[in-house]
Amino acid sequence: MECVGGKMKIIKKGDIIQSARYFVNGLFEKGFIDGLVGTVLYNNNSYITFFTDKKFVDTFNPFFPSFQVSTAQEIKRITKTKKSERKFGVILRPCELNAFVELVKFKQIEKENILVIGIDCFGAYDNKRLKDIKEPFSKFIEDIKNDNEEDLRRTCSTCLNPVPNINADIVLGYLGLDGDGVILIPQSEAGNEIIKSFEGEDGKEEKREEVIKKIIERRRKKWEEVKERTIKEVHGIDNLLNFFKDCITCHNCKDLCPICFCKECFWESPVFEYKPENFFLWGEKKGGTKMPLDTIFFHVGRLTHMSHSCVGCGLCEDACPRDIELQRLFYAVGEKTREIFSYQPGRDYNEPPPLTTFKEEELRELG
Protein backbone atom coordinates (compact mmCIF):
# COMPACT_ATOMS: atom_id res chain seq x y z
CA MET A 1 0.00 0.00 0.00
CA GLU A 2 1.29 3.48 -0.76
CA CYS A 3 1.59 5.57 2.37
CA VAL A 4 2.50 9.11 3.32
CA GLY A 5 6.00 9.81 2.06
CA GLY A 6 6.60 7.18 -0.61
CA LYS A 7 6.17 3.68 -1.97
CA MET A 8 6.81 0.28 -0.52
CA LYS A 9 10.35 -1.03 -0.94
CA ILE A 10 11.65 -4.57 -0.43
CA ILE A 11 15.11 -5.26 0.94
CA LYS A 12 16.45 -8.76 0.39
CA LYS A 13 19.65 -9.38 2.30
CA GLY A 14 19.06 -13.00 3.24
CA ASP A 15 16.04 -14.21 5.21
CA ILE A 16 13.60 -12.00 7.12
CA ILE A 17 15.87 -11.61 10.16
CA GLN A 18 19.07 -11.05 8.20
CA SER A 19 17.27 -8.37 6.18
CA ALA A 20 15.86 -6.69 9.30
CA ARG A 21 19.33 -6.68 10.87
CA TYR A 22 20.81 -5.22 7.69
CA PHE A 23 18.26 -2.41 7.86
CA VAL A 24 18.92 -1.64 11.53
CA ASN A 25 22.68 -1.82 11.05
CA GLY A 26 22.27 0.68 8.20
CA LEU A 27 20.36 3.05 10.47
CA PHE A 28 23.35 3.13 12.79
CA GLU A 29 26.00 3.34 10.06
CA LYS A 30 24.22 6.09 8.14
CA GLY A 31 23.85 8.14 11.32
CA PHE A 32 20.06 8.11 11.45
CA ILE A 33 20.04 6.83 15.04
CA ASP A 34 22.45 6.68 17.98
CA GLY A 35 20.50 4.01 19.83
CA LEU A 36 17.62 1.57 19.41
CA VAL A 37 14.93 0.02 21.58
CA GLY A 38 14.04 -3.40 20.22
CA THR A 39 13.85 -7.11 20.93
CA VAL A 40 17.16 -8.90 21.42
CA LEU A 41 17.62 -12.62 22.10
CA TYR A 42 19.71 -13.95 24.98
CA ASN A 43 19.95 -17.74 25.26
CA ASN A 44 16.78 -18.12 23.17
CA ASN A 45 14.87 -15.75 25.46
CA SER A 46 13.68 -12.39 24.17
CA TYR A 47 14.13 -9.08 25.98
CA ILE A 48 13.31 -5.50 25.12
CA THR A 49 16.72 -3.84 25.05
CA PHE A 50 18.03 -0.31 24.65
CA PHE A 51 21.35 -0.55 22.88
CA THR A 52 23.92 1.72 21.28
CA ASP A 53 26.52 -0.96 20.46
CA LYS A 54 25.98 -2.49 17.03
CA LYS A 55 27.07 -5.90 18.32
CA PHE A 56 23.52 -6.27 19.65
CA VAL A 57 22.26 -6.21 16.06
CA ASP A 58 23.63 -9.75 15.72
CA THR A 59 20.92 -11.05 18.08
CA PHE A 60 18.24 -8.50 17.20
CA ASN A 61 14.88 -10.06 16.25
CA PRO A 62 11.92 -7.65 16.12
CA PHE A 63 9.49 -10.35 14.99
CA PHE A 64 10.15 -12.94 17.72
CA PRO A 65 6.69 -14.27 18.74
CA SER A 66 6.87 -13.41 22.43
CA PHE A 67 5.05 -10.53 24.11
CA GLN A 68 6.06 -9.99 27.74
CA VAL A 69 5.66 -6.25 28.23
CA SER A 70 4.67 -3.23 26.14
CA THR A 71 7.64 -1.46 24.61
CA ALA A 72 5.66 1.79 24.88
CA GLN A 73 5.69 1.39 28.64
CA GLU A 74 9.45 0.94 28.62
CA ILE A 75 10.03 3.99 26.41
CA LYS A 76 8.21 6.00 29.06
CA ARG A 77 11.09 5.23 31.43
CA ILE A 78 13.56 6.81 28.98
CA THR A 79 11.88 10.11 28.15
CA LYS A 80 9.31 10.82 30.86
CA THR A 81 11.42 13.43 32.66
CA LYS A 82 12.98 15.09 29.61
CA LYS A 83 13.40 14.67 25.87
CA SER A 84 16.39 12.80 24.52
CA GLU A 85 19.07 15.03 23.06
CA ARG A 86 20.23 12.16 20.85
CA LYS A 87 18.19 10.37 18.20
CA PHE A 88 17.09 6.82 18.92
CA GLY A 89 14.75 4.40 17.22
CA VAL A 90 11.96 2.33 18.74
CA ILE A 91 10.49 -0.88 17.33
CA LEU A 92 6.76 -1.11 18.04
CA ARG A 93 4.03 -3.64 17.35
CA PRO A 94 0.75 -2.05 16.17
CA CYS A 95 -0.81 -2.24 19.66
CA GLU A 96 2.38 -0.81 21.15
CA LEU A 97 2.33 2.02 18.62
CA ASN A 98 -1.23 2.89 19.66
CA ALA A 99 -0.16 2.86 23.31
CA PHE A 100 2.88 5.00 22.42
CA VAL A 101 0.63 7.65 20.87
CA GLU A 102 -1.67 7.62 23.90
CA LEU A 103 1.25 8.01 26.30
CA VAL A 104 2.58 10.92 24.26
CA LYS A 105 -0.81 12.60 24.62
CA PHE A 106 -0.82 11.90 28.36
CA LYS A 107 2.63 13.54 28.55
CA GLN A 108 4.33 10.33 29.61
CA ILE A 109 6.61 10.21 26.55
CA GLU A 110 8.47 13.04 24.83
CA LYS A 111 8.61 11.91 21.20
CA GLU A 112 11.10 14.47 19.90
CA ASN A 113 14.24 12.75 18.55
CA ILE A 114 12.52 9.37 18.46
CA LEU A 115 12.35 7.48 15.17
CA VAL A 116 9.21 5.33 15.31
CA ILE A 117 9.50 2.03 13.42
CA GLY A 118 6.26 0.08 13.36
CA ILE A 119 6.35 -3.61 12.52
CA ASP A 120 3.84 -6.00 11.02
CA CYS A 121 2.55 -8.36 13.69
CA PHE A 122 0.88 -11.66 12.83
CA GLY A 123 0.73 -12.22 16.59
CA ALA A 124 2.68 -13.82 19.42
CA TYR A 125 2.54 -17.21 21.06
CA ASP A 126 0.93 -17.84 24.42
CA ASN A 127 3.69 -17.36 26.99
CA LYS A 128 2.81 -20.57 28.83
CA ARG A 129 3.15 -22.59 25.62
CA LEU A 130 6.11 -20.73 24.15
CA LYS A 131 8.65 -22.49 26.37
CA ASP A 132 7.50 -25.87 25.04
CA ILE A 133 8.10 -24.92 21.40
CA LYS A 134 11.57 -26.10 20.38
CA GLU A 135 12.22 -23.57 17.59
CA PRO A 136 9.58 -20.87 18.13
CA PHE A 137 10.74 -18.44 15.46
CA SER A 138 11.04 -21.10 12.75
CA LYS A 139 7.56 -22.30 13.64
CA PHE A 140 6.29 -18.71 13.61
CA ILE A 141 7.55 -18.14 10.07
CA GLU A 142 5.84 -21.34 8.96
CA ASP A 143 2.62 -20.28 10.69
CA ILE A 144 2.70 -16.96 8.84
CA LYS A 145 3.22 -18.72 5.50
CA ASN A 146 0.39 -21.16 6.25
CA ASP A 147 -1.86 -18.51 7.81
CA ASN A 148 -2.06 -20.68 10.94
CA GLU A 149 -3.21 -18.92 14.12
CA GLU A 150 -3.73 -22.02 16.26
CA ASP A 151 -0.95 -21.32 18.79
CA LEU A 152 -1.31 -17.54 18.99
CA ARG A 153 -2.34 -15.76 22.16
CA ARG A 154 -6.12 -15.58 22.41
CA THR A 155 -5.98 -11.80 22.10
CA CYS A 156 -3.77 -11.93 19.00
CA SER A 157 -6.24 -14.21 17.24
CA THR A 158 -8.88 -11.45 17.46
CA CYS A 159 -6.57 -8.47 16.84
CA LEU A 160 -7.79 -6.19 14.05
CA ASN A 161 -4.51 -4.27 13.74
CA PRO A 162 -1.87 -6.55 12.21
CA VAL A 163 -0.08 -3.57 10.62
CA PRO A 164 1.05 -0.20 12.05
CA ASN A 165 -1.06 2.91 11.68
CA ILE A 166 0.16 6.12 10.03
CA ASN A 167 1.95 7.34 13.17
CA ALA A 168 5.01 5.21 12.46
CA ASP A 169 7.79 6.95 10.54
CA ILE A 170 8.64 3.64 8.89
CA VAL A 171 6.84 0.32 8.57
CA LEU A 172 9.14 -2.70 8.80
CA GLY A 173 6.99 -5.56 7.59
CA TYR A 174 6.56 -8.94 6.00
CA LEU A 175 2.85 -9.46 5.31
CA GLY A 176 2.28 -9.99 1.60
CA LEU A 177 5.93 -10.71 0.93
CA ASP A 178 6.78 -13.67 -1.28
CA GLY A 179 10.03 -15.23 -0.12
CA ASP A 180 12.82 -13.71 1.94
CA GLY A 181 13.50 -10.09 2.85
CA VAL A 182 11.54 -7.33 4.57
CA ILE A 183 9.13 -4.64 3.45
CA LEU A 184 9.89 -0.97 4.13
CA ILE A 185 7.19 1.69 3.86
CA PRO A 186 7.91 5.37 4.60
CA GLN A 187 5.12 7.24 6.39
CA SER A 188 6.81 10.55 7.18
CA GLU A 189 9.43 12.84 5.70
CA ALA A 190 12.03 11.36 8.03
CA GLY A 191 11.01 7.86 6.99
CA ASN A 192 11.13 8.75 3.32
CA GLU A 193 14.64 10.18 3.64
CA ILE A 194 15.83 7.02 5.39
CA ILE A 195 14.32 4.54 2.96
CA LYS A 196 15.68 6.45 -0.04
CA SER A 197 19.15 5.71 1.31
CA PHE A 198 18.59 1.93 1.04
CA GLU A 199 18.66 0.02 -2.22
CA GLY A 200 15.75 -2.28 -2.90
CA GLU A 201 12.98 -3.23 -5.27
CA ASP A 202 9.39 -2.05 -5.49
CA GLY A 203 6.89 -4.24 -3.68
CA LYS A 204 3.49 -5.51 -4.80
CA GLU A 205 1.08 -3.30 -2.91
CA GLU A 206 -1.98 -5.25 -4.08
CA LYS A 207 -0.61 -8.52 -2.69
CA ARG A 208 0.05 -6.93 0.70
CA GLU A 209 -3.41 -5.38 0.85
CA GLU A 210 -4.99 -8.72 -0.05
CA VAL A 211 -3.17 -10.58 2.75
CA ILE A 212 -3.95 -7.91 5.34
CA LYS A 213 -7.62 -7.80 4.34
CA LYS A 214 -7.93 -11.57 4.69
CA ILE A 215 -6.43 -11.54 8.19
CA ILE A 216 -8.61 -8.67 9.38
CA GLU A 217 -11.83 -10.14 7.99
CA ARG A 218 -11.20 -13.49 9.66
CA ARG A 219 -10.33 -11.91 12.97
CA ARG A 220 -13.20 -9.45 12.87
CA LYS A 221 -15.66 -12.31 12.57
CA LYS A 222 -14.04 -14.08 15.52
CA TRP A 223 -13.91 -10.89 17.58
CA GLU A 224 -17.60 -10.17 17.03
CA GLU A 225 -18.40 -13.66 18.31
CA VAL A 226 -16.13 -13.20 21.34
CA LYS A 227 -17.59 -9.75 22.06
CA GLU A 228 -21.17 -10.99 21.89
CA ARG A 229 -20.36 -13.87 24.25
CA THR A 230 -18.55 -11.55 26.65
CA ILE A 231 -21.40 -9.04 26.86
CA LYS A 232 -23.81 -11.85 27.71
CA GLU A 233 -21.39 -13.24 30.30
CA VAL A 234 -21.17 -10.00 32.27
CA HIS A 235 -24.75 -8.75 31.90
CA GLY A 236 -26.11 -7.99 35.36
CA ILE A 237 -24.31 -7.77 38.69
CA ASP A 238 -24.49 -11.51 39.40
CA ASN A 239 -22.87 -12.36 36.06
CA LEU A 240 -20.25 -9.66 36.54
CA LEU A 241 -19.40 -11.07 39.97
CA ASN A 242 -19.10 -14.51 38.44
CA PHE A 243 -16.76 -13.25 35.71
CA PHE A 244 -14.39 -11.90 38.37
CA LYS A 245 -14.95 -14.69 40.91
CA ASP A 246 -11.32 -15.83 40.75
CA CYS A 247 -9.80 -12.34 41.06
CA ILE A 248 -7.40 -11.94 44.00
CA THR A 249 -6.95 -8.17 43.47
CA CYS A 250 -3.21 -8.57 42.93
CA HIS A 251 -3.31 -5.56 40.56
CA ASN A 252 -1.01 -7.31 38.08
CA CYS A 253 -3.36 -6.31 35.25
CA LYS A 254 -3.03 -2.66 36.21
CA ASP A 255 0.72 -2.83 36.60
CA LEU A 256 1.29 -4.32 33.15
CA CYS A 257 -1.29 -2.15 31.35
CA PRO A 258 0.57 0.46 29.25
CA ILE A 259 -2.29 2.93 29.71
CA CYS A 260 -2.25 2.82 33.53
CA PHE A 261 0.50 5.31 34.32
CA CYS A 262 -0.57 7.39 37.35
CA LYS A 263 2.37 7.96 39.68
CA GLU A 264 0.02 8.13 42.65
CA CYS A 265 -2.45 5.34 41.96
CA PHE A 266 -5.83 5.48 43.67
CA TRP A 267 -5.86 1.70 44.01
CA GLU A 268 -2.58 1.75 45.94
CA SER A 269 -3.60 4.68 48.15
CA PRO A 270 -4.44 4.76 51.89
CA VAL A 271 -8.13 4.77 50.91
CA PHE A 272 -7.94 0.97 50.97
CA GLU A 273 -6.03 0.66 54.24
CA TYR A 274 -8.95 -0.44 56.40
CA LYS A 275 -9.16 -0.66 60.18
CA PRO A 276 -10.60 -3.56 62.21
CA GLU A 277 -13.73 -1.57 63.03
CA ASN A 278 -14.49 -1.30 59.30
CA PHE A 279 -14.84 -5.07 59.08
CA PHE A 280 -17.04 -5.26 62.17
CA LEU A 281 -19.23 -2.49 60.78
CA TRP A 282 -19.67 -4.35 57.50
CA GLY A 283 -20.39 -7.53 59.43
CA GLU A 284 -23.08 -5.82 61.49
CA LYS A 285 -24.67 -4.37 58.34
CA LYS A 286 -24.49 -7.39 56.04
CA GLY A 287 -23.57 -10.30 58.27
CA GLY A 288 -20.24 -10.73 56.49
CA THR A 289 -18.08 -9.42 53.66
CA LYS A 290 -16.27 -11.17 50.83
CA MET A 291 -12.48 -11.09 50.75
CA PRO A 292 -10.35 -10.03 48.95
CA LEU A 293 -12.16 -6.72 49.09
CA ASP A 294 -13.16 -4.29 46.36
CA THR A 295 -12.76 -6.70 43.44
CA ILE A 296 -15.58 -5.28 41.34
CA PHE A 297 -14.83 -1.73 42.44
CA PHE A 298 -11.26 -2.12 41.18
CA HIS A 299 -12.16 -3.45 37.73
CA VAL A 300 -15.13 -1.15 37.13
CA GLY A 301 -12.99 1.77 38.27
CA ARG A 302 -10.30 0.85 35.76
CA LEU A 303 -12.90 0.46 33.03
CA THR A 304 -14.27 3.96 33.61
CA HIS A 305 -10.77 5.40 33.82
CA MET A 306 -8.99 3.91 30.81
CA SER A 307 -11.35 1.89 28.59
CA HIS A 308 -11.41 4.68 25.99
CA SER A 309 -7.64 4.29 25.54
CA CYS A 310 -7.50 0.48 25.75
CA VAL A 311 -5.40 -0.75 22.82
CA GLY A 312 -6.43 -4.39 23.23
CA CYS A 313 -2.87 -5.67 23.73
CA GLY A 314 -4.02 -8.35 26.20
CA LEU A 315 -1.14 -7.88 28.62
CA CYS A 316 -3.70 -7.54 31.42
CA GLU A 317 -4.83 -11.13 31.07
CA ASP A 318 -1.29 -12.37 30.42
CA ALA A 319 -0.41 -10.94 33.83
CA CYS A 320 -3.40 -12.50 35.60
CA PRO A 321 -2.33 -15.44 37.81
CA ARG A 322 -5.90 -16.77 37.73
CA ASP A 323 -6.20 -16.75 33.92
CA ILE A 324 -9.18 -14.39 33.80
CA GLU A 325 -9.74 -13.31 30.18
CA LEU A 326 -9.71 -9.62 31.00
CA GLN A 327 -8.89 -8.24 27.58
CA ARG A 328 -12.12 -9.31 25.95
CA LEU A 329 -14.15 -7.47 28.59
CA PHE A 330 -12.01 -4.34 28.62
CA TYR A 331 -11.82 -4.12 24.84
CA ALA A 332 -15.55 -4.79 24.39
CA VAL A 333 -16.43 -2.05 26.88
CA GLY A 334 -13.77 0.14 25.28
CA GLU A 335 -15.46 -0.19 21.89
CA LYS A 336 -18.67 1.17 23.39
CA THR A 337 -16.81 3.99 25.14
CA ARG A 338 -14.93 4.95 22.00
CA GLU A 339 -18.12 4.90 19.95
CA ILE A 340 -19.80 7.32 22.37
CA PHE A 341 -16.91 9.78 22.23
CA SER A 342 -15.96 9.14 18.56
CA TYR A 343 -12.46 8.37 19.78
CA GLN A 344 -9.82 5.91 18.65
CA PRO A 345 -6.67 5.29 20.72
CA GLY A 346 -3.48 5.81 18.77
CA ARG A 347 -5.21 7.45 15.82
CA ASP A 348 -3.87 10.99 16.12
CA TYR A 349 -1.34 12.72 18.35
CA ASN A 350 -3.59 15.80 18.34
CA GLU A 351 -6.84 14.02 19.26
CA PRO A 352 -7.42 14.68 22.98
CA PRO A 353 -8.48 11.68 25.10
CA PRO A 354 -12.07 12.05 26.41
CA LEU A 355 -11.01 12.27 30.07
CA THR A 356 -8.83 15.31 29.34
CA THR A 357 -11.63 17.40 27.82
CA PHE A 358 -14.85 19.00 29.04
CA LYS A 359 -17.92 19.92 27.03
CA GLU A 360 -21.07 21.51 28.40
CA GLU A 361 -23.21 19.65 25.88
CA GLU A 362 -22.17 16.02 26.22
CA LEU A 363 -23.81 12.67 27.00
CA ARG A 364 -27.28 14.22 27.01
CA GLU A 365 -28.82 10.75 26.73
CA LEU A 366 -27.75 10.17 30.35
CA GLY A 367 -29.92 13.06 31.53
UniProtKB/TrEMBL annotation:
Molecular function GO terms recorded: iron-sulfur cluster binding; metal ion binding
PROSITE patterns, alphabetized: 4FE4S_FER_1 (PS00198), 4FE4S_FER_2 (PS51379)
Domain 4Fe-4S ferredoxin-type: 301-329
Entry keyword annotation includes Translocase: no
Signal sequence, start to end: none
Gene3D superfamilies named in the record: Alpha-helical ferredoxin
Keywords associated with the record: Iron, Iron-sulfur, Metal-binding
Keyword Iron-sulfur: yes
Record-given protein name: 4Fe-4S ferredoxin
Pfam (any one): Fer4
